[in-house]
Design brief:
Strand order of the largest sheet: 1-2
CATH topology: Ammonium transporter fold
Low-confidence stretches: 6-14
Number of helices: 15
Strand content: under 5%
Shape: globular
CATH class: Mainly Alpha
Number of domains: 1
CATH superfamily: Ammonium transporter AmtB like domains
Oligomer: single chain
Distance between the termini: 76 Å
Helix content: 55-70%
């Protein structure tokens, strides 16, 4: 027998060892990793995406984009508390395959002892909240420089409840698409396809910016763009590897393939530009990196390095030509290329998940009895359902808000810039 003090010391030491749970069932190593990942995913939106988008717009609109991302972060956080989390992740009873229940509205019944798996449910609540925050923030890039701030707030709130909530539940909350076997490790369908389609619909409903496509509208601050892109890359480790919810080899492999996908996407986009235009651009290499990350996201927890390399290279090719086609051929003013990068990337990665998750391609393997063709079919169904749901309800929400508030600032206000018109501030002083 140990002396009493030594016994307590031993128990304390054992609780601190990775992979061991304390008496209350909490795995401290996993909890620490998910806490860190939560901070990383929030870091993706504030300040990562904010700076990335703000640098891409013209100087007269830089503050408006920063304001939109910041406000969305606050708005979604309150809505998440008020019931969005509950209707995604709590038991919906007989309606569970379609929608969750109301038992966790305002985190009812959740305290420090509540667990999701072997981590505190409060940590899981926060982790999933950061995903919900970045999804409507991505859509900002489609209507940048021309949407009213009030309309943006209403659209983000309604879209979160009407579009994000059910799709997230169907795939991650125990809904019908999860039952069918849809694979989406960290948000290729739930986030990137969903937001990408909403972005395309938003760009079509609002119409092009004044002067597009004849007037050049280059990024006003590439240093800001690269800084934001770097923050996105770092934050994405929490996005993907954090979704393992464990501090183990699974999270490690997920982080590895995430990095390979980003690197391959960046180099591929750069190479295409270099060959086509004679010089590689900084904007191109960082956009390729984002494309690689968005495309690898749904597959990241299911594949190995070979699959990541193929998916990253594919992302660079597919998203580059999608961007060229949307802007130059279709002349759709998706201002910051949300649909061709995130939407097309999410679709591509989600389909390829069904291929490279197979063990013969170095993946973790498909479910017993499921062939690659069958899995790709399930992936395609989940994508099509998400496209239809997001497109339909994004359109209805936008048209309703246009009739009620008006979506777009006037032509004169657009020329003047949203920073001054909507916020009476400017991003830069005239020195």
């Amino acid at each position: 027998m140990f002396p009493n003090n030594n016994y307590k010391s031993l128990l304390t030491g054992l609780c601190l060892l990775p992979g061991l749970a304390c008496a209350d069932g909490i795995n401290q190593a996993n909890t620490a990793w998910v806490l860190t990942s939560t901070a990383l995913v929030l870091f993706m939106t504030i300040p990562g995406l904010s700076l990335f988008y703000a640098g891409l717009v013209r100087s007269k609109n830089v503050l408006s984009v920063l304001m939109q991302c910041f406000a969305i972060t606050c708005l979604v956080s309150i809505l998440w508390l008020a019931g969005v989390y509950s209707f995604i992740f709590s038991d919906g009873g007989s309606f569970q395959k379609v929608i969750g229940g109301a038992s966790k509205i305002f985190v009812s019944g959740m305290d420090t002892s509540s667990l999701t798996g072997d981590i505190p449910e409060t940590v899981y609540f926060m982790f999933q909240m950061t995903f919900a925050i970045i999804t409507p923030a991505l859509i900002v890039g489609a209507f940048a420089e021309r949407m009213k701030f009030s309309a943006m707030l209403w659209f983000s709130a309604l879209w979160l409840v009407v579009v994000y909530l059910p799709v997230c539940h169907w795939i991650w909350g125990g809904g019908w698409l999860a039952d069918l076997g849809a694979m989406d490790f960290a948000g290729g369908i739930v986030i990137h396809v969903n937001a990408g389609i909403a972005a395309l619909v938003s760009a079509l409903v609002l119409g092009n910016r004044k002067g597009f496509p004849t007037t050049a509208m280059p990024p006003h601050n590439m240093t800001m763009v690269v800084t934001g892109a770097g923050m996105l890359w770092v934050g994405w480790y929490g996005f993907n590897a954090g979704s393992a919810l464990t501090a183990d080899g699974h999270a490690g492999m997920t982080m590895l393939v995430t990095h390979i996908g980003a690197s391959a996407g960046a180099l591929t986009w750069m190479a295409i530009e270099w060959k086509r235009f004679g010089k590689p651009s900084v904007l191109g290499i960082v956009t390729g990196m984002v494309a690689g990350l968005g495309t690898i996201t749904p597959a990241s927890g299911f594949i190995g390095p070979f699959g990541a390399l193929v998916i990253g290279v594919t992302a660079g090719f597919v998203c580059f030509y999608a961007t060229q086609y949307v802007k130059r051929s279709l002349k759709i003013d998706d201002s910051l290329d949300v649909f061709p990068v995130h939407g097309i990337g999410g679709i591509t990665g989600s389909l390829l998940t069904g291929v490279f998750a197979a063990s013969n391609f170095g993946g973790l393997g498909l479910k017993d009895g499921v062939s690659i063709l069958q899995q790709v079919g399930v992936q395609a169904l989940a994508i099509v359902v998400t496209i239809i749901w997001s497109a339909l309800f994004s359109y209805l929400i936008l048209k309703m808000l246009d009739a009620w508030l008006g979506l777009r600032v006037s032509a004169d206000e657009e020329v003047q810039g949203l920073d001054t018109v909507l916020h009476e501030e400017t991003g830069y002083l005239d020195l």
